[in-house]
Write a structure and sequence with these properties.
This protein is mainly beta. The chain has a domain of 51 residues. Helices cover 8% and strands 45% of the residues. A hairpin with a 2-residue loop joins β3 and β4. It is elongated and about 45 Å long. The protein starts with a strand and ends with a strand. The model has no long low-confidence stretch (mean pLDDT 88).
């Protein structure tokens, strides 16, 4: 996905690439106060909801001892 253009980046945009088979969700927030203009993108493994709700819906993935999950997340400014 492409975010921007951002004036603070000289009119450039931020391109975000991620694996959708293991990283289904990204949380994003932005803070604009005074001269600050901050954007945060955080990878998450589930939608925003309370843990009991996620568990009841079968959406709270738990790893067994020794199990792994590979994620990929890349950013490019251009």
């Amino acid at each position: 996905m492409r975010l921007g253009p951002f004036e603070a980046l000289g009119g450039r945009s931020l391109q975000v690439r991620f694996r959708t088979d293991t990283l289904l969700f990204l949380q994003m927030w932005r803070c604009q106060r005074g001269t600050a203009d901050v954007i945060s993108i955080e990878p998450v493994s589930h939608r925003i909801a309370k843990r009991p709700e996620l568990a009841a819906a079968g959406e709270l993935p738990l790893l067994q001892p020794g199990a792994t999950v590979d994620y990929a997340l890349a950013f490019q400014v251009g």
